[in-house]
Amino acid sequence: MDIATLGGLIGGLALIAWGILANNLGIGPYVDPPSIIIVIGGTFAAFFIAYPLSKALNIGGVYGKSFKNPTNDIATIIAKILELANTARREGLLALEEGASDIEDEFLKKGVGLIVDGTDPELVKSILDTEMSSIAERHAEGRGMLDTLAALAPAFGMVGTLIGLVAMLQQLDDPSSIGPSMAVALLTTFYGSLMANLFFMPVSKKLEIRSAEEMVIKEIMIEGLLSIQAGENPRIIEEKLKAFLSPKVRKSLSPAEEEAQAEA
Amino acid sequence: MDIATLGGLIGGLALIAWGILANNLGIGPYVDPPSIIIVIGGTFAAFFIAYPLSKALNIGGVYGKSFKNPTNDIATIIAKILELANTARREGLLALEEGASDIEDEFLKKGVGLIVDGTDPELVKSILDTEMSSIAERHAEGRGMLDTLAALAPAFGMVGTLIGLVAMLQQLDDPSSIGPSMAVALLTTFYGSLMANLFFMPVSKKLEIRSAEEMVIKEIMIEGLLSIQAGENPRIIEEKLKAFLSPKVRKSLSPAEEEAQAEA
Amino acid sequence: MDIATLGGLIGGLALIAWGILANNLGIGPYVDPPSIIIVIGGTFAAFFIAYPLSKALNIGGVYGKSFKNPTNDIATIIAKILELANTARREGLLALEEGASDIEDEFLKKGVGLIVDGTDPELVKSILDTEMSSIAERHAEGRGMLDTLAALAPAFGMVGTLIGLVAMLQQLDDPSSIGPSMAVALLTTFYGSLMANLFFMPVSKKLEIRSAEEMVIKEIMIEGLLSIQAGENPRIIEEKLKAFLSPKVRKSLSPAEEEAQAEA
Amino acid sequence: MDIATLGGLIGGLALIAWGILANNLGIGPYVDPPSIIIVIGGTFAAFFIAYPLSKALNIGGVYGKSFKNPTNDIATIIAKILELANTARREGLLALEEGASDIEDEFLKKGVGLIVDGTDPELVKSILDTEMSSIAERHAEGRGMLDTLAALAPAFGMVGTLIGLVAMLQQLDDPSSIGPSMAVALLTTFYGSLMANLFFMPVSKKLEIRSAEEMVIKEIMIEGLLSIQAGENPRIIEEKLKAFLSPKVRKSLSPAEEEAQAEA
Amino acid sequence: MDIATLGGLIGGLALIAWGILANNLGIGPYVDPPSIIIVIGGTFAAFFIAYPLSKALNIGGVYGKSFKNPTNDIATIIAKILELANTARREGLLALEEGASDIEDEFLKKGVGLIVDGTDPELVKSILDTEMSSIAERHAEGRGMLDTLAALAPAFGMVGTLIGLVAMLQQLDDPSSIGPSMAVALLTTFYGSLMANLFFMPVSKKLEIRSAEEMVIKEIMIEGLLSIQAGENPRIIEEKLKAFLSPKVRKSLSPAEEEAQAEA
What we know:
Chain A is built from 11 helices and no strands. Chain A has helices spanning 3-21, 33-50, 53-56, 59-65, 74-91, 96-100, 106-116, 121-170, 175-229, 234-242, 247-263. Chains in contact: A-B, A-D, B-C, C-E, D-E.
């Protein structure tokens, strides 16, 4: 559970509510169901034009991912790869099969499987690279849905405001209704702006960063697997993999690694 | 028939109509034929400057593609490639000619034809790559037309609003006409915004996603054809092609593949 | 003569004029010479800062190109290349000199000349590639001028409107002049927007598409010339060149090619 | 301590304060705590959604870097590399170990360590390249946080203004409160704009330039280290490294280098 | 002296002044020293945060470059290279030393020096490429400063306008002051817009074009130097270098070349 996503959403909404209540008008004038329907409805109508149905219906799953913590811990992965490297050095590549049984990550498991099967190194690299870039593209597609929503929401907010303004301008003869009518007209812009900047854009950003982290981990896995297959010295493999990390993460790795090496 | 495109367009328009009717003024004040003519006419006048006539006149065909479902199913294509691989393994490359007769996809058919003709592998790759990137460029050009329209519509919406505002400001002495005049002036901005965000932008997005899907399928075809020509083991070909797919699609493929292999 | 460019410009202006006249105020209030001078003058003053004089003065030539049809027809070019390939096959590379005499395209002529001179294939490729990318860069520079104008026109439109608004606000005490003053102030924004969206942006787009088409033709020429020099089979050359084309263009090519081959 | 960052921030704020006081209303009407809370709170709520907690909490450290001067002086680094090159030439690569003891830069130290260990040149290059691009990505991520804040602040400024406008429009019947209410509504836009353009955007820009400078230094280090490992002539190494520098910096280097060479 | 830059600036300012005077209010209402100070001051305060002091202080030098004509004439450079090629052919590479004495361009001089010193061709290419891309990066950094200023000026223009609007809205009870107060508030937006679109953006564009031209000349120099070093035929070198040029420039070159070849 990623507390920051939930906390940010709740905190942001609470702040907005507090800002509204500070005007001593209550939350009432800020809630106009028809305006809400126009903005959300228009945004999602256009969204369903933009994305094939099977993908569009998956938007909930994509959004939900921003509430989950990443499953892979970089320290554990590097420790596991070094453990595999030590096993391969001492007992040969075939011995990896056993060590692979407790790997949870599908990508690493597949890579080990390919090595154990004696697949040609170039083919291993080609298959894993294709798989990694396919995953990256699917992530980008998911973020693209949120970016599309973030672009559509303010646009339909403006469409709603224009509808409201035209109605208000047609009835200028009743001065007392001008203010409230225009207030209502502005609400769709308010909803659209809030949806884009609190609900869609930041979540898209989070998924982008998560995807980048996952790709670094996959790059580390590929680098590590190819080095294991090439029979390189575990110490050199460690040196290579650590080059991907920041000094801070490197230090935090040390205990895990020592464990791995002690174990080895 | 892609129901989502049609449903999104109808749903979006219905929502806007409902939002307009919620103001109890009827749909009348929102329909101003001269405003509609200025926005649509100006947008398409600029569009015909921007695109050579033969391409510009094809905009209907480009737009229409967003209402059609893609013809290629990834599962069928992979099954077909594996079937071809099995045939080639057992009976030689020339035996592919027969198996190719029932291929509907022109690109795959052409590739099989090149292999049967004994074309040099590098030339096969070069011809298919050129063809794939030419197709991708033509798709991008089609989307470019919709993106141009999506940029022009709000611009001419603003031009129309400026025309209306200038007229209104010249006649400020009749206060009763100010409201309705300004309402009419705003309509062109409303039309331009709706055209861009409901009709052009989402459809361009859909064509972009369809094109990306089609390119993945073409990449799979090229990879598969070259592997068949190289005489690779069908199991390794399967491994290679599956790396392009998401885990979900991979699982959905299994039955089709089993069929293909049983058949083989 | 590209009728679409001229028709689009005239049609767009006619529509705007019609939209203006629909307000029953005549065209008068929309024509303010000082406003026109500020927008056009400011735009071009900044434009002359932005571009070296020799290039800036060439803007008319660049603009004019959007009114001309492209000289190269893809069918004629491919037919010519296949004819050259046949000649070279039967009579040797030196025989190309004669066949080159009626080539109108400078680029193709130069390429044939290099081959006849016995230039090293890598050098031929290097010289033609350099020339092609230099041409593409010059095209991009021409478009860049129009894009700069399209960015400057609305900016100086806004500058003009600000000048007008400040003047109007300083004289608020005469209520009868407020409307007309503000109307005049808005005119510069109107002019700037029209210049950008009707005159500059669409023409830049057309030049972009023309340039892309020309580059495809040049790529076909280079591919064809190098294949001729390598002594490849004309049928394979045809296969290679057609990969650049859409199925529709391919079909339209058939008669021309048959002619070329009958001739050969 | 980078005086320009601090001076710019203080100077910018002083100017704004002076501009406010020039209106003879005091600073009071420009300070509205609820508005400040909405803009800053909303911006950071969305920011915490966008970035994983561990990174988001590091924003202070990232921001603080813009107040520090870079630790590496290009002249000192080149002099050091030339000194190492001379040592390696005269006494062999192993002699570098001693000379490396007083290197403060971690990256250069690591590189020297790899050379002393007799690591394969390609592996040295691969490890240092990976490390350099990992550092560049971490820098880009830090700047990305500031860019996200710079995009969010004006957005929440507008959200705050919309909240205020709706409140004002609901109470139009009290004319005396219209002005001040609208003034308060505009404050959030003012805060958001100032945050983006004075606090976030310029600092992101400074970090971008610093990062680019650091990458040039790292490129120089890699180039120098590989040349040392290849046993190249120190004069050629000097020629190579100086190609990275501007003529001005080159001249300023001369004394340092002469020192280094005299020393050598 | 680049007359176009100066002429454009003076012409643009004269036009704006004329547009202002056309309102018969004199230039007075458009000159508000506090507003000028806020926009210029705020823009440069943020600018000094964004750029390290040593670079920021160099902004005058960068700006000044747009008033100078480029020193290198493409015809002279090509003639010189061909002259060097002829010398090298007849008298050997060492004879270039003498011919290099009258080369003014530092880059070409350095290249000739490297060749005379018998430097390895790959190293010559590597050093000159590094130097060329370092120069291109420094140019881009200079333009980046102007682009930053062009982005900051309108932003601080808006900040100033918000300050003025808030002040005006707080004093709505004095109707006679509303107009002039709002006029003054708009001035900062006017200044910011003018600074960006007349002073910063066009000059950045000019430097971009100049840099591109310079890079083409440097590419020609590198190509020419490597060909000379490889002992290629001067006629082939000429053919290669001319591929970089437009047909128009090629024709204008002919006299200079003939001279060079006559001389040779």
